[in-house]
Every structure is written in structure tokens, then in C-alpha cells.
Write the C-alpha cells for this entry.
Amino acid sequence: MKVHEVVCLSALVPSRLPGLQYALNPYRGCQIGCRYCYAPAVLRDPRPWGGYVEVKRNMPFVLARELKREAPGVVGIGTVTDAYQAVEGRYRVTRYCLETLLPHDWPVSIQTKSSLVLRDLDLLGGFSRADVGVTITTLDERTRRVIEPFGSPASKRLETLRRLNEAGIDTWAFIGPILPEATERGMEDLVAGIAEAGTRKVLVDRLRLKEGTWAMLEPSLRALDEGLPALYEKALEGPYFADMERAILDLAARHGIAAEPAF
């Protein structure tokens, strides 16, 4: 893993994601290294995903300048990288950005796979509007270790949701991307776990292959089972993902959770 500091020229970038006016990404690259990630295609970066992280060390200072001239809006933190990946524990760029945003009380929306977000409960509780989404793809640990090699177990992510809810922070769970076999294995327990954690909103997303994603994902699938790549290709061509999305939405409703497709 190569980690080095870079100078960024901007902090707030206009976002086209639903409900977000701005995107803020304190890092380029991600240590979690999810094999299905769309970020390499978005960034058009040929380097091995999961093998590098660029730390935008000066971002809080740039953000402070931009807050003086930009119109207030919802800031999505971690839209193409996990803002709470392991290097955040050392560099704290995400925390410093939250400290910069807090006096202005701009709404913030965070999406992460990491329990490190709990470190910043003291700041999040000070915003008039702040929410945290936790991504959980599967309860199948064997698949998780291969597909999300440096992510935390689903049990830890569910615990993160529980603690956020206990602290009074608005939460949501992101079930995605749907992974054939792995997502459906334990799906009932996953949705029940989200409900038991106190989260009442779920977004569901299908597997969306961008340029280069299959080349990154296929070897990992093959490492799990030689037949999985063919299974995924068949699923991508048929109604599988629509059917699974509908099944998760129905299951969530039975558990008292408001669920909807992510896009």
C-alpha cells in the first residue's frame, strides 16, 4: 500500500448524486479495495485499486475558503472513496473537514464501511442535520474477505449503526451492490440485523459494472468458486437483479424499514 500526501486545489465538488449538492473526498484511492468498486472508472486512474491512497492534507484549509463563497447545500462525504478508511485514523483529514463545516452548520451526509466514524460522534451531534449511511453487502464472511479485502465484518458494521442510532444520529443502511449468492445467503438475517440496530431506512443497489470493473472483479470471483464468473454473467443478462432488489424491498417493509432503490 502506497500512501503519500498531495495538495488539492478544491474541496467541494458539485454532485449529481440524489440529495447531495456537493461531494467532498478527503482521499483519492481507498485501502478497503472493494473488487466491484466503480471509483477507478470515475477517476480514470489505471493504478491497482486498493494499492494506493493520496492524502489531501490541505483540504480543510481549502474548504474553509470555499465555505465563504459557496451557497450552502448538503455535503456528501466519501462519494468515491471511504472517508473513514484506515489512514483517516492517522491523518484525520475527514475530522478536520467536519470541524471546518460545523461552525457553518452545513448539512452533511456520510457513507462508509468503517466503525471509525464513531470517533466523530462529538462533531456529528453538533450539526442541525447530519446522517450516516453504512454499506453492508453480505453476511457471508468468506465472500466479504475476498470481495472487500480490507473491509470490516458485517457484524461490526451493524454495531456501528446501533451505536450511531443510540447517539441520536440519523442513519441509513446501503445494501449494495447485490452479489449473486452472497447477498441472498443470510438476507433475512441482514435485514433483521439492520432493523434491530434501530435503522429505519435502506437503500438497495444492483451490481453496476463500469469500464474495467469486471477485470478487477472476475479473478476474485474465480478464487471463491470457478463457476461464479459464469453465474454473475448470467445474472447481469437476465432479471436477477431486478428480482433481488424487489425481494429486499419487500423484506425490509416486513421489518418496518423504508427501503428504496439507490438510483
